[in-house]
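Problem statement: downstream parser choked on a complex file, so we are re-checking the raw output for the coenzyme A run. The parser issue turned out to be on our end (a line-ending mismatch), but while we're here, posting the original submission so the record is complete.
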Amino acid sequence: MTDIRVLSDEAQFRAHATVFRRAMHWGPPSDDDWKVVQPSYEPDRVLAAFDREEMIGTTQSYASSLVVPGGAVVPHAAVSRVGVRADYTRRGVLTALMREQLSSLPDPVATLRASEGRIYGRFGYGLAGRWRTVEVDAKRAVIPGEMTGRVRMLDQDTADKLLPELHEALGLSRPGQISRWPGWWARARDRKSVAENSVTVVHSGPDGDDGFLTYKVTEEKDFKHRMSIADFEWANDDAWRDLWIYVTRLDLVDQIEDDVSLDDPVTWLFEDPRVVRTKDVFDEIWLRLVDVPRMLQARTYGAAEPVVIGVRDRLLPANDGCYRVSPDGAERVEEQADLTIPVDLLGAVYLGDTTFSQLAAAKRISGTRLRDADALFAVDRKPYCGTFF
Ligand SMILES: CC(C)(COP(=O)(O)OP(=O)(O)OC[C@H]1O[C@@H](n2cnc3c(N)ncnc32)[C@H](O)[C@@H]1OP(=O)(O)O)[C@@H](O)C(=O)NCCC(=O)NCCS
């Protein structure tokens, strides 16, 4: 019989980290690891499954905020450390954890990163945003013109102090973007100190610091170097372009790799568009609408005739029902639905990564008025988070 408990003290948190890490085939946290990981345990947000007194499964969430289409910022749970001990899998332990977590979250929406694509749909999470890994041929990359601002390199201590403040000051604007919590920065600092040649540069424009980039350069062979960009945020186009000018003009770098949104305009920076190659497209954001009425009201809609959407949610039946969506907003109604969609797929269209018509073509949803629904949920920017957790 699985018993789900909320954990509250440090010894339990460390046991939680150990169970999760074992599920991922990693060893338990060392004392040094634990110093880094411990700040990411927030009381009230850590759940574990027990068989009598043995911990057999884990999940937790971090309190954060998420930008939705139209620019509103809503409270958001960043769900992480999902794992079940290998000798207890496929007996419903994760199902019990997810059920408890979703019914107790204070936030109207949750997102996570999935280790496998088949795990989370059944719990109402939909694939809501993907990233594109691009490789830039730095030796052939020419960005015409000069920088408009200044790029300066920081030492590690200054970067550690400045980046959390700067990230907050840059603000949240991109749908899919999330705020970062103190434990996130502790992990980022640790990753940087492990990669001892990690470098942070900050861009300043006329109004002060307005962008930053963290990267690492690795020598592959015979002075051939590859740069990996680990973190890149900017407040305006000038900062974005200047930071690309900086990385493409660095000596000794042959290839630059970065994860960007599906519609990132990086290709158009260069005289020769072929210097940018898409190496991969991978899922980034899995999104769960926890409070469907609130989340439908939180975003804005495009111009189209109103559509009545029937939502089905097996795990959180309070969301079940029909919602009339129009350019003025969304409200719950007692009307016949034009189309019906399970909550995981509503999560998939919510930020604009996919459309109702695409889901209907794939026989994942059925109904009428698909074009109007597409136009209502249309976005002018593809979602991209840019914060891994
Ligand atoms: C993924 C994991 C947490 C699932 O835990 P679990 O307790 O076995 O899950 P449940 O028994 O509650 O499974 C619920 C359903 O999901 C299915 N399922 C669970 N994990 C699955 C997977 N990896 N692939 C396909 N189906 C899966 C089960 O078959 C079951 O289906 P059913 O209801 O039709 O029988 C566990 O396998 C694990 O810890 N894996 C390694 C770590 C990991 O990948 N964690 C996720 C990090 S994002």
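For whoever reads this later: Residues 23-24, 82-84, 89-95, 114-116, 118-119, 122 surround coenzyme A (CB under 6 Å).
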